[in-house]
Design goal:
alpha+beta, three-stranded mixed sheet
Length: about 190
């Protein structure tokens, strides 16, 4: 795992979309484009139904399949391990969108370009957290060195979630999951 990662506390997320809206605002994204998306899931049936949320964006994977899928060389790792898209080199083919198992790459139909989380590099350079982290009212999101996150949030963290299936990507994220997120009948809910 990379030295830095996103942390997401699934047990505290209420699906408020504050992280998503802050990201859209910071990157001046049009309505149909989002670099961080809050998804709701249901499991169980009456009298024991359950619901949980996942607020996800690019996981800046160690073995990012989007890099290999990009024929124009527009996607690369920077010196800090972040997976970045060079909009000037992007030809809008969409291969990276299909390659990402997390659905973390967005396509701007107007610009005909792919885009995704850039870790708010401008904020990180100033010692500030990514805007999604700062916007979360329940403090469900965090970002930092893996060892610090593990120490701060304790045991029981995972990088993999069954709702995404098995991936060879090694995502740079730590999740404190709700136990129901591992239910075999969990399904995405479209509200």
């Amino acid at each position: 795992m990379r030295e830095t990662a996103f942390f997401f506390d699934m047990t505290a997320c209420t699906g408020c979309h504050a992280c998503e809206m802050a990201c859209k605002d910071a990157h001046d994204l049009p309505p149909a484009v989002s670099y961080r998306t809050v998804r709701g899931f249901e499991t169980g049936t009456y009298p024991t139904p359950g619901v949980f949320y996942y607020a996800g964006g690019c996981n800046h994977c160690e073995n990012a399949p989007c890099i290999a899928a990009c024929g124009s060389g527009a996607i690369r790792n920077d010196e800090n391990g972040a997976v970045l898209i060079d909009a000037e080199r992007c030809i809008g083919c969409g291969k990276c969108l299909k390659a990402c198992p997390f659905g973390a790459i967005a396509f701007d139909r107007e610009q005909k370009k792919a885009g995704k989380c850039d870790l708010c590099a401008n904020l990180l350079a100033d010692g500030e957290p990514p805007v999604c982290v700062a916007a979360c009212p329940n403090r469900c999101l965090d970002f930092g060195p893996v060892e610090e996150l593990e120490r701060k949030y304790g045991p029981g963290l995972t990088r993999e979630l069954p709702l995404f299936g098995e991936t060879p990507c090694t995502p740079s994220r730590l999740v404190k999951p709700k136990p129901i997120a591992f239910a075999p009948d969990a399904r995405e809910k479209r509200w």
